[in-house]
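Reviewers of the previous submission asked for a worked example of the structure-prediction workflow described in the proposal, so we include one complete record here. The input consisted solely of the amino acid sequence. No template or homolog information was supplied to the procedure at any stage.
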Amino acid sequence: MLFADVPGLVSETEAFRETTLVVEPARLVEACTSLRDEHGFDMLVDIAATDYLGWGAPGVSGYIGTAVGRNLNRPMTQGLQALPAPKPKRFSLNYHLLAIQPGAPRVRLQVWLDDGEPLPSVVPVWPGADWFEREAWDLMGIPIEGHPYLERLIMDEDWEGHPLRKDYPLGGEPVRFSGEE
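From that input alone, the workflow returned the following structure tokens.
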């Protein structure tokens, strides 16, 4: 393990030339500080939130196309080769980090959260996290504690709910065209 000394480390995996470090939510700031100061990851590229509501539940039936064709007599595959493994919690927040040095690995720092579970802000570690954290709050409803200015970023201030959540109601405002009254 290259990153065994990262505080709060739960697991470390390697895939697609990227190392994924899962850390405990309460120790996120410590882990980020360690990765910046001791491992040289001085650039936060992005923070991406994902909602896994209903992950792995029975879904739509379909046929799998393989290299040798498809079996029309076995349709209960849900379009997947195998059912996905269950996720630890509903939301994941992924911090994509880079080190500005030749040959440095790409690192994704991942945190798993339940609905309403707060997460500490990493703005003191990487000031560029400001807008990314506001976006996670605005669109997914992930509360960020200690953020200097946690307000809506994309949606209007009076908007109800968080539109990228899987339980957000479909529909919305009707489209009005300029020729209509």
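The chain has a mean pLDDT of 86. We consider this example representative of the routine output the project will generate in years two and three.
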